[in-house]
Records
---
Amino acid sequence: MSLKHAILILLESQPGSGYDLVKRFNSGLGWFWNAKHQQVYQELKKLSEAGWLSFEEQAQDSRPDKKNYRLTPAGHAELQRWLADPVQPVRTNDALLVKLYGGNHTSLDNLREELQRHRQLHAKALDSLLEIERSYLALPAEQRGAWRLPYLTLRRGILGEQAWLAWAEEVQQALAE
């Protein structure tokens, strides 16, 4: 997957400006696809040049004109092509796992501190995801249907964080021995 397909997904759901897309990334896709502000704007330019997006400019008084993007028929066709193609499982590059693997070359205190720092980050992420889940579950049933598939991605995130924290507990116990 690439950033361009994530942008196409977001714009297929709802047209918007670069600023709107960054906000949507931060509140949804950002949990499992990382994109920086500048990357989104650069990709919007490329997608427009490729003919996959069109935009309308909206004048603003105190800022540069705002561009509101939407998919073109060619952009929709590319999105449909990509959605039909199989994707490869993600391989993880995790520096903490490399440190743990080579842990015999450092102190146990160093490993414990690093693990504790990561546990705090994962616990905070889990709390945030659970808060989003509570908001989803509080929606009336007729509104939940529209969010069913994003909710399933949320559940994957929750289960992933819970599994990571359970694994970290095992590691902590092993390092205490």
---
Amino acid sequence: MAIAIVDYGMGNLHSVGKAVERLGYEALVTGEREAILAADGVILPGVGAFGDAMVHLRETGLDGVVKEAAAGLKPLLGICLGMQLLFSTGEEHGEHEGLDILPGKVVRFAPSELKVPHMGWNRLEFLHPENPLFAGLDAGHVYFVHSYHAITENKDDLLAVTDYGHPVTAIVGRGSNFGMQFHPEKSGELGMKLLSNFLSLTGASGTA
């Protein structure tokens, strides 16, 4: 079976799909409910604004499909904006309801001496190194580009942070649902290993 990459008109579909294929798995870019729910795993990418993305998801009916996938045992990974959409609300250009798969909110970085957007290579700190997502990995640097960051309501959902004036949510997870604020496919060896570990959790056949 394939890894479904949800196509709702606002994702970095090509780069994510190519990364999945480089790791030896079949990538299926699709907006079809049946294909998404039949896949071994689901990736929700995202580039753009939180509110616009939720409008696209609702207009296509894919908000319910993603929530249905998340409610089952099928591994789900949100990437960048896709991770933020997993939360209850986002405050980008006004407050908007998210998918509410993980309780919490997405807020803008507070004014400080640090530049916004947060852009560049920052080191991850694994808070739950026993999580299978981190199997065989050592903490290292990944590449971030974002102006908003997630605040988890449940501290156990926070799997990894980076430092940008304060601890910033980098990886979240609950059960088989995960999110990465950075783009793993653009984050060198560590990013690809994290993506590979997620793909291995899907049980899909691959050469990774």
---
Amino acid sequence: MEQLQAVQQVDRYVHERRSTDQRFVGWGIYFFLLSWVTLGIYGVVLFYRRLNRADLFRGRRVHYYNAVIEASKQYAEEHGQYEASHDELDDLQRFVKGRFEDEHKPIKAGLSVFLSFITLGVYGCIAIYRLMRFWWQIQLTEQDFDDKLSVAWTKLGIVRYPLTFEPVQALNRSFGMHFLLSFVTLGIYGIVWDYRLHTDPEKLYPEVHSTEDAVLNALRVADPVLPH
């Protein structure tokens, strides 16, 4: 029963992506229509939503990772194999805790928008830097998590072949280069930059979702009494 509940928690956070992994209105409609019609107000709203989208994604990942680790521990205990994977799963839990405390701190969308206003946009640059860095770094965390989980799961017999996740390399961009190009082109390159900020997360969602589905299916198959 505990194993069933643990896997249901994984399932819950996988399906939570319907509300957290958001796709926004098309960039062209936003940039060429909505921003002009609302006299720039929609641009501010979308700035907030882009930052908040990262925070929502971050929160879901923390819960998902911890749920996967707990389900793995429950499987090990119920199959008498806890000693075989104890160290790996504990290390994985420490890894997740460390990454989210050090590398993936919340951007705090509301506060970031407020600070951007009172600093006349200066803090907005910091928020954008953190946003760009987040979407790249979270992929590296996902890759490391899957590699470490594969080691534990192989010992437990949950999988025969390692889980794989390939980061979307297009998201590994330099904030400084984008800022410089926007400056020297008098803002023209900033339009390209804005388009990428708008669409980058949607490039990684399919990869993340595919890996989540593989993890959830592996947990279900490992114990045939669990519902599919």
